[in-house]
What we know:
4 helices
Amino acid sequence: MDWVMLIGAGLCEMAGVSMMAKLQKDRSMRTLALLILGFGASFILLSLAMRTLPMGTAYAVWTGIGAAGGAAMGMLLYGEPRNRARILCIALILAAAIGLKLAG
Length: 104
């Protein structure tokens, strides 16, 4: 269950990052509220997951999901450059997160 919470925390982090990008274009209170909600939920879920998961592993996986997801969303939703090097780096981040899960 802690791994589910950790993945949920990473997904909420991605939502918060997405709202940061949207806030640059749309300065609405709704977008700001969603940004705060996304990051708040992310921190809460991360702290719950860290009750049993090692801090270093949990933090690395959480930031990996956020970084890889943020980069992928930037390419898919916000017109950021798509090239092999960027996609390879995202794959390496995800592979490292999976490796940490498998290592214990």
